[in-house]
Structure formats: structure tokens, C-alpha cells
Amino acid sequence: VHLTESGGGVVQTGGSLKLSCAASGRPFNDYAMAWFRQPPGKAREFVAAIDDEGTRPVYADSAKGRFTISRGGVRNTISLEMNSLKPEGAAGYYCTLRTGAKAGDAVTSYDYWGQGTQVTVSA
User: Fold this and answer.
1) Contact call for residues 90 and 71 (beta carbons, < 8 A)
2) How far is CA 7 from each of CA 11, 28, 53, 81, 94, rounded to the nearest angstrom?
3) Residue 81: half-sphere exposure toward Cβ, Cα within 13 Å
4) Which value, in Å, is the radius of gyration of the alpha carbons in the chain?
5) Residue numbers in the chain where pLDDT is lower than 70
6) Residues 84, 121, 58, 50: is their CA dihedral positive or negative?
7) pLDDT digits (tens, 9 = 90+) for 74-94
8) CA nearest 24: which of 33, 35, 15?
9) Nearest to 34 by CA among 58, 8, 1, 10
């Protein structure tokens, strides 16, 4: 399975950015997808996840009310719309996938990872 992220860039504090991810390769019957981020010098942390059907998203507290994860019309794609970005949101953002229908927030439960896309939030 290969995951490709896009949409990172530089945005001002309070601005918006939309990330996208496409999965390719061996298909699974059911799989959940998620976004994690890793600020410089810190551990990778959960941002948002979505189940196989795209109907039950899960968010980190830091993302609730500002970020929206969705599953695309093409089942193997997801996006993350980020609004009201804060400086602490600057990080590498990673798309990930795990087999099974249910979404979750544990980094160790995900099997496949993209290379990441960088988000910079300027003051």
C-alpha cells in the first residue's frame, strides 16, 4: 500500500489549509484512515481519523471544531480541512491507514504511512 499526501504549505495564523491523501496498491475490504502530525522535536500525535464508510470521524481535542476529516468520493482518498490554524499546528502531517472498519487514535495501530507533507504556520 502506498500513501501520497498533498496540500501542505505556509499559512498565516488563523488561516486555512486543506490536505489530501490517496492510497494505492493492494486493496483491503475494510480500512480506516487517519492523519497524525509531528512537530519538530516531538512525538507523532493523533489529529483525526475516519472509518471505512466515512460516516464516523474521530478527532483529537486540539482539532475539534476547527478541523474536518472526510472520505472522498473515491473510497481510497481522504482530506483534512484545517481552519483557524495556530502556530502549534506547524508540523509534518502524515496520512495513515489500517485494516478494519473502525477508526482509532493509537499510532501503533496503523500499518501504512505516507511520507508526510509539511505545514508551516506563520505569525
Assistant:
1) no
2) 11, 25, 23, 10, 12
3) 7
4) 13
5) 27
6) positive
7) 779 999 999 999 999 999 999
8) 33
9) 58
